[in-house]
C-alpha cells in the first residue's frame, strides 16, 4: 500500500540500537557495559560518562526515514558540567525531538532535566551538535557515584497516518485508535447490557464500499456476480454504495482487498466517533440533514434509494454514512445473548477467531450482524447501538458493507 502524500508512518517500535560498529570506542564500551557496569572511562576523574547513540528502528514504513544518531561523545568539562556531542541526520529532512537518557549501573534510566543546547524539539540534521548537562544540579554528590551512560535519542515523531489510501480497492481508510468504549444500550432490544469493550487500533473504510469498487473486484478476481441490472435499478452511479451483496460476497471482497469485515464492536466503536452514550454518530437527535433514512427532507433527497456515499457530514472520526444509507455486514454471528457474556477485549461472536473465520467463511451458516440501519428505516433504527442480522446468503436492496484492517497489518 502507499500512504497519502506527506503522511508517514513511524516505525512500530523503537529499537535500542547501540550502534556504530565503525566507532571502535563505542563498540568496545558496549561490550564492557554488557559484561559489567563497574568501570571507569575517564580515569582522571572520579566517575566517567559514556555515550551512545540510539537510533530509531530503521525499518521504513510509508515514505518516512527515521533519524540516525552517530558520533556521540560525552566528557566532563568541569565538576558540574558534562558536554555531550553528537551527529544526527534525518534522511528526509524532518525536524526531530532529541532526548537524553542517563543510566547508572543497573538502575533504570532517567531523562535529565538540566540541559542546554541541541536538545528538545525542533532539532535539524547536522554534525557536532552540543548539549550541556548540569550534572551538579541534577545529581547531588554525583562525583561520589559510579559511571554514567548517556544515550542520545532522536525521534522524527511521525505518528501513524490518520487517513491512508488503500491501493488495492482505492479506498480511504481512517485510523481508529486503540481504546475502550461503552458498547450497547439500556433500551434497545438485544443491545443490553451496556458493557465496556477494549479494542486494538484499526483502520476502517471512510465510506461504504461502492458499486465501482465492487465492479473492480469482480473484474480483477473473476468472482461470480451477475446482479448488476438489479443493482442499477437502485443505484445509478458507481459512486453509490454496493447493494445486493451476501455476507459471503462481502467476505470475498474483503479477502481480495487484503482487509476484513469489521467486528460488531469495531463497527460500533467507529460509528460512535469518539462520543459516549449518544444515539447517533454525531450525538443525539436526528433529522434529514444528518443521514439518508426513510423519507426525504433537507440534504436527504433519496426516497427509498441509497445516496452516493459521503453525501452527509462525517462523524468525529471522519467516517460517512454509519447511520442509514445502506446496512453494513459485520463479521460476527448474531447472538442475542452475546453482550451479557462478551469478552472485554476484541470480542467476536460466533466461536471462530479472526483467522478461522477467514479460512472457513464459506462454511459459515449462522446469521450475521448488520449495522447502521438503511434508507428504508425510520430514525429509531439508524442508531449506533441498533443491531440487526440476516442469513449470510441473504442479499437485498439496502445491504452493503465496509471493511477494516488491523493497524498491525498496516505497520508491519
Ligand atoms: Ca523522517
Ligand atoms: Ca431518505
Ligand atoms: Ca451505512
Please report the first level of CATH classification, the CATH class of the largest domain.
Answer: Alpha Beta
Structural class, from helix and strand content? alpha+beta
- Give the neighbour order of strands across the main sheet: 1-8-4-6
**Structural domain count:** 2
| Associated small molecules | calcium ion
Strand percent estimate: 15-25%
What is CATH's topology name of the largest domain? paralog of FGE (formylglycine-generating enzyme)
Quick take:
With 412 residues, the chain is α+β, with helices and mostly antiparallel strands. Helices cover 17% and strands 25% of the residues.
Keywords:
single chain; 412 residues; alpha+beta; Immunoglobulin-like; paralog of FGE (formylglycine-generating enzyme); four-stranded mixed sheet; four-stranded antiparallel sheet; elongated; disordered N terminus; binds calcium ion
What does this 3D model show about the protein?
This protein has about 400 residues and is an alpha+beta fold. The protein has helices at about 25-35, 135-140, 210-220, 230-235, 245-255, 265-270, 340, 355-360, 405-410; strands at about 50-55, 70-75, 80-90, 95-105, 115, 120-125, 125-135, 150-155, 165, 170-175, 180-185, 195-200, 200-205, 325-335, 370, 385-390, 400, 405. It folds into two domains: about 25-155, Immunoglobulin-like (Sandwich); about 165-410, Alpha-Beta Complex (paralog of FGE (formylglycine-generating enzyme)), CATH 3.90.1580.10. It is built from nine helices and 18 strands. It has a four-stranded mixed sheet. A hairpin with a 4-residue loop joins β2 and β3 (about 80-90). It is elongated and about 80 Å long. One calcium ion binds next to loops.
Amino acid at each position: 500500500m502507499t500512504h497519502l502524500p506527506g503522511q508517514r508512518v513511524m516505525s512500530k517500535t523503537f529499537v535500542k540500537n547501540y550502534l556504530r560498529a565503525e566507532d571502535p570506542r563505542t563498540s568496545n564500551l558496549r561490550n564492557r557495559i554488557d559484561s559489567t557496569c563497574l568501570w571507569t572511562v575517564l580515569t582522571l576523574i572520579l566517575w566517567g560518562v559514556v555515550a551512545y547513540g540510539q537510533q530509531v528502528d530503521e525499518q521504513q514504513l510509508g515514505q518516512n526515514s527515521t533519524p540516525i544518531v552517530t558520533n556521540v561523545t560525552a566528557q566532563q568539562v568541569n565538576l558540574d558540567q558534562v558536554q555531550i556531542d553528537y551527529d544526527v541526520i534525518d534522511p528526509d529532512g524532518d525536524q526531530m525531538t532529541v532526548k537524553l537518557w542517563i543510566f547508572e549501573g543497573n538502575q533504570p534510566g532517567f531523562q535529565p532535566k538540566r540541559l542546554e543546547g541541541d536538545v528538545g524539539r525542533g532539532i535539524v540534521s547536522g554534525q557536532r551538535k552540543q548539549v550541556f548537562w548540569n550534572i551538579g544540579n541534577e545529581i547531588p554528590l554525583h562525583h561520589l557515584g559510579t559511571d554514567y551512560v548517556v544515550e542520545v535519542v532522536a525521534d522524527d515523531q511521525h505518528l501513524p497516518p490518520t487517513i491512508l489510501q488503500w491501493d488495492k480497492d482505492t479506498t480511504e481508510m481512517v485510523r481508529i485508535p486503540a481504546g475502550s468504549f461503552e458498547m450497547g444500550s439500556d433500551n434497545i432490544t438485544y443491545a443490553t447490557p451496556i458493557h465496556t469493550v477494549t479494542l486494538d487500533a484499526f483502520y476502517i473504510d471512510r465510506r461504504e464500499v461502492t458499486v465501482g469498487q465492487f465492479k473492480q473486484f469482480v473484474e480483477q478476481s473473476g468472482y461470480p456476480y451477475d446482479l448488476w441490472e438489479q443493482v442499477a435499478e437502485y443505484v445509478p452511479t458507481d459512486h453509490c454504495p454496493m447493494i445486493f451483496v451476501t455476507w459471503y460476497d462481502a467476505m470475498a471482497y474483503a479477502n481480495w482487498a487484503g482487509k476484513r469485515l469489521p467486528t460488531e464492536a469495531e463497527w460500533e466503536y467507529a460509528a460512535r466517533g469518539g462520543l459516549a452514550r449518544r444515539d447517533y454518530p454525531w450525538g443525539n437527535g436526528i433529522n434529514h440533514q444528518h443521514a439518508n433514512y426513510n423519507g426525504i427532507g433537507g440534504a436527504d433527497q433519496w426516497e427509498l434509494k441509497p445516496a452516493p456515499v459521503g453525501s452527509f457530514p462525517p462523524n468525529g472520526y471522519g467516517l460517512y454514512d454509519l447511520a442509514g444509507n445502506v446496512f453494513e455486514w459485520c463479521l460476527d454471528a448474531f447472538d442475542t445473548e452475546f453482550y451479557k457474556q462478551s469478552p472485554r477485549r476484541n470480542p467476536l461472536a460466533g466461536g471462530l477467531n479472526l483467522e478461522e473465520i477467514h479460512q472457513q467463511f464459506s462454511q459459515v451458516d449462522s446469521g450475521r450482524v448488520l449495522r447502521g440501519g438503511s434508507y428504508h428505516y425510520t430514525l429509531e433504527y439508524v442508531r449506533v447501538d441498533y443491531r440487526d442480522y440476516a442469513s449470510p446468503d441473504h442479499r437485498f436492496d439496502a445491504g452493503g458493507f465496509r471493511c477494516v484492517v488491523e493497524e498491525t497489518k498496516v505497520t508491519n
